Amino acid sequence: MNVSLTNVDSVNAILKVEINQADYQEKVTGALKNFRKKANIPGFRPGAVPMGMVKKMYGKSILAEEVNKLVGEGIYNYINENKLNVLGEPLPNIEKQQAVDFGTEGDYEFFFDLGLAPEIKLSLTKRDKVEYYKIAVDEELVDKQVASYKANYGTYKAVEEGAKDTDLLKGIVTELDAEGKPLEGGIVVEDGVLMPSYMKDETEKAKFVGAKVGDVITMNPAKAYDGNEAEIASFLHLKKEDLTTISPEFSFEVKDVTRYKEAEMNQEFFDRIFGKDVVKTEADFREKVKENISNQLAPDSDYKFLLDAKALLEKKVGDLQYPDAFLKRWLLTTGKDKTPEAIEEDYPKIMEDLKFHLIKEEIAKANDLKIEEADLKEVAIMATQAQFAQYGMMNVPADVIENYAAEMVKNNDQRRNLLDKAMENKIIEFLKKTLGLKEVSISLNEFKKFFEPAATDETEK
């Protein structure tokens, strides 16, 4: 087998793969023998089918399969050994490729178009200035987070006084007849639960405000929940299709009134959030909250920095030449339900993304940035902690975090995302050390404005 490359220009090339009969003869013969052992052809015992018959019936397809395997291996090995930075995948060359006849054994030639990545030259120094927007954590942000913790870690407690609309009422729900008496054989829910504030109708809601244990209240579920079948069925423990046969009115005998009480700022609360004795005073607790918020916002600052660095890097690299015709052909070949018109429309954005991808590749290659398993684990742990933090769970045991992270690394799709994120993190850290950073303190509200859609003339009017 011989593989050779002919450059058409700096970003287009033709790869020629020559397969000689000696390259595949032994493989084809072995494949035919294996197939003969397994062939189940009427009139012959397994393994006793004449080789000539097997070759006549299946030789062409087996030859094609073995030759195609060799072609694929030849292309892959040549690209890797010569360290070619190809874009997309090799495509058959329409002009040079002749029809291949696998009906007779012989020598074969295959021609493939290659799209090559443009060469990127990039020199970075501290003279290349980029602003780094660090989000300041003010007291308002801390107050909101503390309030969220107190709400999330509160408890329901029984109360003696009349119910508020946000209280939870438990009781017995009984279906009533036309005279307002319990319906014989009607619906009875022993463990009914409701919260007045969830009711849509103000009149129905008002019936329960001020209610105490022992009170019996007549209510209309359909009216209370504005005809929402899912809510009514859930309240009455029924299926939605059974609602058509029920009476309009029910009684609710209050058995229990509980009120949600926010968590108090004490040592038990501190320990639940951050772990045993990590903080011991309210001042230390607030400082720890502030630190956590700052850590959670750091990736946002890094993301904004990468966007600004992207603009600088692309400007320094300048215009690049791409194998446009090849790439459009490849996109059309590989894109499901893609039309030439759709590809033309999407192409500028695709090229914009490709340019930055190639720049990041060059930075990684030129500075020997590599991803180790430890890097993957670190990124997976950070992603897991962020997921738990969204639900206010800051004190999740380390072994639980590590188990979740380990499962993420094992999942192929998630692993690819983690690899991309780990490399992006390394590139960000490299750029932060290499470029001239000007740190700017900014409020969260000001920072968010960077990502708000630009106002159009119409919206401004």
Descriptive notes:
The chain has helices at residues 21-38, 51-81, 139-152, 202-208, 221-224, 229-236, 267-274, 282-317, 324-334, 340-366, 373-390, 398-410, 412-434, 444-448, 457-460, and strands at residues 2-7, 12-19, 86-92, 108-116, 129-135, 155-158, 168-175, 188-194, 216-219, 250-261, 436-442. It is an alpha+beta fold and 461 residues long. The chain folds into three domains: 2-116, 2-Layer Sandwich (Alpha-Beta Plaits); 129-145 and 277-460, Trigger factor, domain 2; 155-261, Chitinase A, domain 3 (Roll). The strands form three sheets. Strands 6, 7, 8, 9 and 10 form a five-stranded antiparallel sheet that branches. Helix 1 packs across helix 2 (51-81) and helix 11 packs across helix 12 (398-410). The model is unreliable at 455-461 (pLDDT under 50).
Topology:
Layout: E1 2-7, E2 12-19, H1 21-38, H2 51-81, E3 86-92, E4 108-116, E5 129-135, H3 139-152, E6 155-158, E7 168-175, E8 188-194, H4 202-208, E9 216-219, H5 221-224, H6 229-236, E10 250-261, H7 267-274, H8 282-317, H9 324-334, H10 340-366, H11 373-390, H12 398-410, H13 412-434, E11 436-442, H14 444-448, H15 457-460
Helix pairs in contact: 1-2, 3-8, 11-12, 11-13
Write a brief caption for the model.
With 461 residues, this protein is α+β, with helices and mostly antiparallel strands. It is built from 15 helices and 11 strands.
